[in-house]
Every structure is written in C-alpha cells, then in structure tokens.
Please model this.
Amino acid sequence: MSSVTTDKQAAALDPAIARAIKSIADETPEQETTDGFHLVIDALKLNGIDTIFGLPGIPITDLTRMAQAEGMRVISFRHEQHAGNAAAAAGFLTQKPGICLTVSAPGFLNGLTALANATTNCFPMILISGSSEREIVDLQQGDYEEMDQLAIAKPLCKAAFRVLHAQDIGVGIARAIRAALSGRPGGVYLDLPAKLFSQTMEAKAGKASLIKVVDPAPRQIPSAESVKRALDLLKGAKRPLILLGKGAAYAQADADIRALVEKTGIPYLPMSMAKGLLPDTHEQSAAAARSYVLQEADVVLLVGARLNWLLSHGKGKTWGAEKGPKKFIQIDIAPTEIDSNVAIEAPVIGDIGSCVSALVAGLGSNWAKPPAEWTGAIAERKDKNLSKMAQTLAARPSPMNFHSALSVIREQVRQRPDAIFVNEGANTLDFARSIVDMYEPRKRLDVGTWGIMGIGMGFSVAAAVITGKPVIAVEGDSAFGFSGMEVETICRYNLPVCVIVFNNNGVYRGTDVNPSGTPDVAPTVFVKNARYDKLMEAFGGVGVHATTADELQKALAEAVASGRPTLINAVIDETAGTESGRITSLNPATAKKK
Ligand code: ADP
Ligand code: TPW
Model:
C-alpha cells in the first residue's frame, strides 16, 4: 500500500508534487493518509495490472508519474488512439484488460475510437479518462475541456462507470475489470473527475476499500444437452468444417482446440486472427481451398467466430446457397450471438475451453473421421492452389509487387515463428493474410472486425512491450499514415519493431488521376516516391529504402536479428493493387454496376 507520507516515494517524485504531498501530509501529521492517485494505482496493481498506455496532461500527468514511481510500466504515446489500440491489443494477448489513460474531452475522444473498436472485436480494455468538475459540466458552465464523457462513452462500450469518492475507487476499478473480462470481453470506460485524485483518506481504510477481483472470467460450462446435440449433428455430417475465429485465439484453449481438430479429423479454416492456433501448414488446414469448403460443407462448427460480414453473414453464393442449406453448430460465450444471421441448429454456450473440451470428451473411441471423398477433394484443390501460389511467389518482378515482397516476409516469419505479425492496409492486408503463414497462436494482429486503419503502431508497441518478441508490422502506405508518428514512441522505448511500409504511392494504388483537370491530385493519390524510411531515421531508428526483394529480405533479417527499431520503405508497383483489395464489391458504385 502506498501512502502520501512515505518519504522515499516523495523523493522519487517531481519536487512540485513532493511539496504538494508534504503540505497534505503536514495537515494530518499523525495519520498516514493516501489519496485518489495512489488508490487508483494500488487498485490496478492489486489486480495484476502492471502497464498503462496513455498520454499525459491535466488532470492525469501526476498519475502517470506516480504510477511510474510505484513501479508500473507507463508507455506514453503521441496520440491517444494509438495508446487505446495498444491497450486493446494487450487485452487480447493477455486476457487482462489493457489500460489506456487519457486527459479529458479531446484526449478522451481520441481514445474513444480505440475503445469502440476493442468492444467490436471483443477485446478487454479499460479507457480511464480524467474529467472536469461534475457541477460545472452538468450546468454546462464551460469548464476547461468540459464534456459529459460518461454519457458519450456509454453507447460505444460494454460498460461505463464514474467514481466520485476516493473510497469508491476500489469498487470502480473492480467493476471495470469484471465488465471488461466476464462473458464476451469488451471495452469499459472509467470516468475519474480531476477532484477525485486529490481526495485523501486514511491509508488503512483506503487499503481496505480496494478489491482484488476473484475469478473475473469464470468458466462457463456448456449444458450436456447442447454438447450432445452438437456431437450428433457433427457425427451425421458428410462434409464437416471447423471455423476458428479470434474468440478461439483469445480464449487460450490452444491444446483443446488442437485436440478437437486432430481427433475429429475435420478440415478447418482459421479467420485471420485465428491463424497459427494450429500452424497454417497443418494438413487439415483448408485455407488454400477456402471458397470450395465454404460452398460445399454441409455442417459447419463455428468456434469463437461470428457470422458477420467477414463470413458473408453465413448465406449467399459464398456459402453455396444454391446447393441447399447448411447446418451450423456455434460455440460462443454470448448466447445472444446465436441466430444473429442464420438459424443455428446446435448452439453451444460457454467458454471455448469448456465447450471444446466437452466436445472432445464426447467424441468417444469410435469416432469416424470425415469421408475420404471430402478430405481428398479438399487436398486436391489445396495442392493445386498452393503450387500456383508458389509459382507466383517465386517471381521477382521489378518493381516489387505485393507477392514478391510478401514472399520474403513469409520466409522470415517461418524462421521466426515467435515474432508478432501486425498487418493493415487493403491489398497489403488481403495478400499478407493468405500468403504469410502463421505457426503459433496469437501472433497475428490486424484490422479486425471493422477493417479499421490505424491499429498498426499501437498494436506493434503493445506486442513488443507485452511479449518482448520481435514485431513485424506490414503496412499499406495509407494505413501506416494513420499512426505513423508513433515510430517516435517505438524509438523512444527502443522496441524491437520492424515496420515495412508497402509504398505504392496511394490508397489501394497510386495511379488515379483527377478527372477534372484542376491541379489537385486524385483523392487516393499520395506524394510519389515518398521516403517513409526517413521518418524512422529522424528519431534514431534504422531506415531502409528497399526496391528489390533481396534488399527487403536483408533489411528485414537484420532488423529481426538486431531488435533495433527499423522502417523499411518497400517500393511496390503503383499499378499492382485493386480498389479496396478483396472487398471491392462493397463499394456503392461497384455494387450498383453489378
Ligand atoms: P472473427 O472475426 O475471427 O470471425 P469474431 O470477433 O467475429 O471472430 O468472433 C469472436 C467471438 O468469440 C465473439 O462472438 C465472442 O463472443 C466469442 N468469444 C470471445 N471470447 C470467448 C470465450 N472465451 N469463450 C467463448 N466465446 C468467446
Ligand atoms: C479509420 C478506409 C480501407 S483500406 C484503406 C482505407 C483508407 C487504405 C488502403 O491503402 P493502403 O493499402 O493502406 O495503402 P494497399 O495495400 O491497398 O495499398 N479510415 C479508417 N478505416 C478504414 N478502413 C478506411 C478509412 C480504408
């Protein structure tokens, strides 16, 4: 328990804070007291949270200083959205809520996109923002950075709380942790008005007011009937398929999932952030025959994956609708997810670990693996597609295209399967997802459910800070621009992050022309031949300008081996991409033409 009267701590602080602390202490000389600042820090530490991602300013600058003095890791960003994204990624990787700390109104709003995105992705995080005085905000009297933050945050996250009294900080943080982690994980907003931080209370009572959250994500055992229903359906399938989503990656039930796949012998498809739960080179992976298995499967077992737009809502041509309806089994912790898009024949509600192990236990010794006709047909398509892909990857065009650049990165990831792979862009994302194999769980972080640009540097910082492993961030040049300034953060903390910018001079491509003839360039076009590598050099990192696959390979290998912050400006043919990558059909103009 920290206390405002501890001399050692006071000495570690800025002299101004130390003076303030001393004056508070002088007022109550006999009693050891604590304050709002320390209660927040102690409550987080009590719950095993040792890292804060944030950006200082009134009223939380001192909180970041004190947290550091109290032994917490404080990672300070250049923009709150990236601190928020880092917190979300930390939540996904660790099953502990990632903490993002911001100032009021504008800082809060900057963090809010990340909070909403975390909630959409089912990642646990807590956005803690300082806020103005309630009395002034509620009467709209124009306080410094006035905003009713709690009201604004509420519809965009899983839960939102405000703490007004120091003695309630323990409860506030406990509720935030529980809300973020229990059931379907998500983002939580915690509003801490400036006045709260300087409130004092007796240290012993303060300590007693804190709560160590017990079992914040309790196992949720599926009902025996639901497991039986699912197994019966799976047993009767002629062309079964398992679909693994990022919920399965989050759940850290890796051994159970592997057992389910291998004992059933059922082919599986990983969604992008579930890649590596089993190595992408696994013989049961049907990723290289994706369209075939989605169309042909008769029974599909979804494990922590939603039938949202990323899976064409479970219907239509992608799912071979003309060949008759499919039957779905869905494992999810959120009962209301079931039937959200199509009828689910066999819902299995519970945590993935419990559900999957119950299914495995129910397989019995005489489980019949899927018919060879099905697995053989998949293998045939896979072989054909993989050998076609191998040919494309072997080509060395000049300038580089997405494939030749990614073939080099694919090889590096094969050599360092423990590296974290961060990925955003349109073509850069779509091609990397299918070309770069992942070998270990939770090594791929990307644009997620929204397909949002701007996660790149925040996710990279979190991945490096949390795991200490090399990070390889493969970024479209547009995508990189959303968080590019955080290369300074990467340099400041000397993180082992290698950013590779696929520079094709624009959004999707660099070839659009302004049809009007006025001097402005087209909306999708950037400054040609930009040198993103110089940005990393500006902060003391390594910048490399790579125009060939060999140059890219050498620079990447050096970056991974040295662990030095590196940015490789990989020059990609500006004609190589397609509009919106693989989701061209979602563009209104394209859709109308169809
Ligand atoms: P993807 O985009 O990879 O298809 P989604 O984000 O759509 O994955 O789906 C993840 C699903 O996993 C969500 O419906 C969520 O409720 C579920 N989920 C998350 N964690 C768990 C867990 N521990 N146990 C069961 N389901 C979970
Ligand atoms: C927050 C819309 C989707 S993909 C993309 C944008 C702007 C960039 C594509 O160009 P990039 O990649 O990165 O150069 P590439 O490989 O095709 O050359 N704002 C937000 N999120 C999204 N998704 C967009 C805009 C978009």
